[in-house]
Amino acid sequence: MKKITLLVCFITMGAIVFGQTWSPPGATWTYSYINVGYHGYVEINYVGDTIINSVNCKKLHKLWTGTENFPINIFSEDRGFEYTY
């Protein structure tokens, strides 16, 4: 019984230690944004890591780029940062 418990502990520890990260440095995501009168896309960039309340977090920057229909106007708007862990 001790050998089985020890084996399960090593397998579990290996899965925790070698976990996969979800956002490599330099990762970029985009998604479409459509509303009445304007449309465009949001680009999210992984810009680095930070610590918030002793928790290591990913820092993501959001930039919204779009077009207004009336009058026709192209714009970019900084949507700030989001943090995940």
Which shape, going by the Cα principal axes?
elongated
What percentage of amino acids are in beta strands? Answer: over 45%
The chain-level structural class is alpha+beta
Can you write the helix and strand succession as a string?
A: HEEEE
Rg calc: 21 Å
Order of strands side by side in the largest beta sheet? 1-2-3-4
**How many discrete domains?**
1
Alpha carbon gap, first and last residue: 37 Å
Give the low-confidence spans.
none
Helical content class: 10-25%
Count every helix, treating DSSP H or I runs of 4 or more residues as helices.
1
Number of strands: 4
Rounded mean pLDDT score: 83
Sketch the major β-sheet: 4 strands, antiparallel
Task: Describe the model.
This protein has one domain (21-84). The protein is 19% helix and 58% strand. The protein is of the alpha+beta class. Strand 1 and strand 2 form a beta hairpin. The mean pLDDT is 83. The protein has one helix spanning 2-17; strands at residues 28-35, 38-52, 55-68, 73-84. Strands 1-2-3-4 form a four-stranded antiparallel beta sheet, with no helix packed on it.
